[in-house]
Amino acid sequence: MQAFFDSVADFLGPFLPFVEAALVLIGAWLLTKLLSWVIRRSADQIVQGVKKKRGVDDTQMLALKSPLASVRTVQRTRTIGQVLTVILKATIWIVATLWAIGIINANFLASLTVLSAAVGAGLGFGAQKIVGDVLNGLLMVVEDQIGVGDDVDMEHASGVVESVGVRVTQIRDVYGQLWFVRNGEIQRVGNNSQGWNRAIIDLAIPFDADRAKVQQTILEAAKELTEDPDWMLKLLEEPTIWGLQTLSAEAVIVRLVVKTTPGDRWGVERELRARIQDALKREEIDLPAMNTIVFDGPNGIQPRRATGIDDKQDQQRRTDAGEAPTA
């Protein structure tokens, strides 16, 4: 056998190092394919196991069956699988490339140590942001801050996470625009896909209206959602009224809240508004005009007068009283 290999080496002659380098690169390619397949298969088995345990075939249905646990397992598994694949591919190809160059030029690895000392400082300074991106991305995945499919607010961009890489996270916003956010630039993450959300409706009702009647009307309209097959699975508890949020001469602000499954609060809020409007019409309850009540507080609950006749009257009152007019 040794004689066979010696004859092949003699036949290839000076091309032998290049053939060996090519074999190393081919082996690296095969290894990346194998490890990627193993990671993907392992992630799929975990996902399928969770779905089978919950008796569903689709991830969206899984969210309805188990909104607080299983979905996070699926999302985190897929995210970690993506990150591990990228890291393994990068590591294998770097090692294989250096190995192949070392075969072609035996003195390369020895000179690489001297060369790295010369350019190490410059590369270290230039690559510190890249290193920060990678470390921050790994920590976000390990700490389960975000996952593929999560609805997040990262200050720089808000939307659904489509990919979590070792350096960049991709987010698709509500307009369909794809944002590429460097992991090192992410200072905070607001995740709407973990645990639960809360739908909040702040309703302005006339000051002289029967508040108890209005509250009962909107509460009954909200509770209709809990009996609707299309919405009941998205609600985690009965709607409740927290009471008055703000009191003014024009109106009082009543707050209605309900706990929802992750990512469903906006849809629930829109449906609640539609049903509340229909209920108020049936009871012939009129609401204040929007040019009179403006929500401008930190939570959208502070009423004030808008520009109009009332503002002119207020300015005249201040002038007559010797007060400084408002802007």
Automatic annotation (TrEMBL):
Keywords: Cell membrane, Membrane, Transmembrane, Transmembrane helix. Residues 296-327 are annotated as: Disordered. Residues 203-286 form the Mechanosensitive ion channel MscS C-terminal domain. It is found in: Cell membrane. SUPFAM superfamilies: Mechanosensitive channel protein MscS (YggB), C-terminal domain, Sm-like ribonucleoproteins. Residues 307-321 have a biased composition (Basic and acidic residues). Belongs to the MscS (TC 1.A.23) family. This is Mechanosensitive ion channel protein MscS. It comes from Gulosibacter molinativorax.
